[in-house]
Amino acid sequence: RSLLEARDVHRSFGQTPALRGAQLAVGGGEILAVMGPSGSGKSTLLHCLAGIYTPDQGEIRFDGQRIDELSDARRTELRRTAFGFVFQFGQLIPELTVSDNIAMPLLLGDVRRKEAYRRADAWLDRLGLGGLGGRRTGELSGGQAQRVAIARALVPQPKVLFADEPTGSLDSLTSETVMDLLVSTARAEGTTVVVVTHDARVAACAERTVMVRDGKVSALTEYEVAG
Ligand code: ADP
Ligand code: ADP
């Protein structure tokens, strides 16, 4: 059974339709890339799957449960406990250190201080950030900052990691390194990943790619698979 599903999802913003019957099923542990032209509805689909936007019509299911029908409070709780997020930028607090940023979601989730920092520091070497724990995140390179953002998203052990253009601000070599790390650590943790990207080389790190076009989801054409 799918871990995450969009069934015939429609969502408009005023007169602008963003999704028009989007269908998608993501398996548990699957690493899925979502591509498509700018304005095709990728971000809106990700926000709907993550319970941030509710569809105007259709269903979103997580682990068999309709999440679009939950109260706002219960959806917020689900996002906090089961989902992790990585965006293009902006999720780190620049004045705080790398360790502080990674420990933050654990501290907010009532993990004790010592345990939170122990778990945060265990992620540093794993993401090639050894020795940077005491550095303020505002002083990091773009690639380092995105690796901290990945650690911060994965440290509470979410079931699903949602990433919206996580490498959008990086050069292509750094993008591939960061995406490889995201995929290998998520796979080691058994975390399901849904990553929106414009970059075919970033998508190539995923196990499967779908295309969003005019608010609908389709498989890649042969031409697109060939690149
Ligand atoms: P993509 O991520 O593929 O670029 P989006 O999901 O961001 O596409 O947008 C799909 C369409 O919906 C676009 O026409 C966009 O302008 C519109 N849209 C998305 N979010 C909003 C919003 N919050 N308010 C108004 N229009 C929006
Ligand atoms: P992406 O790089 O994912 O395509 P966008 O630049 O399309 O991102 O959108 C960034 C954010 O702004 C998203 O949260 C999206 O919902 C929102 N947004 C997109 N288009 C509009 C719009 N026309 N009006 C208001 N908000 C929008």
UniProtKB/TrEMBL annotation:
Q: Does the keyword Transport apply?
A: yes
Q: Name one GO cellular component term.
A: membrane protein complex
Q: Which CDD domains match?
A: ABC_MJ0796_LolCDE_FtsE
One matching Pfam family, short form?
ABC_tran
**Entry keyword set:** ATP-binding, Nucleotide-binding, Transport
The family database entries (InterPro entries) matched by this protein are listed as:
AAA+_ATPase (IPR003593), ABC_transporter-like_ATP-bd (IPR003439), ABC_transporter-like_CS (IPR017871), ABC_transpr_LolD-like (IPR015854), MacB-like_ATP-bd (IPR017911), P-loop_NTPase (IPR027417)
The entry lists its GO molecular-function terms as:
ATP binding; ATP hydrolysis activity; transmembrane transporter activity
Q: Which domain of life is it from?
A: Bacteria
Enumerate the spans annotated as ABC transporter domain: 4-225
Instruction: State what protein this is by name.
Output: ABC transporter ATP-binding protein
Q: Which organism is it from?
A: Actinospica acidithermotolerans
Query: What lineage does the source organism belong to?
Result: Bacteria, Bacillati, Actinomycetota, Actinomycetes, Catenulisporales
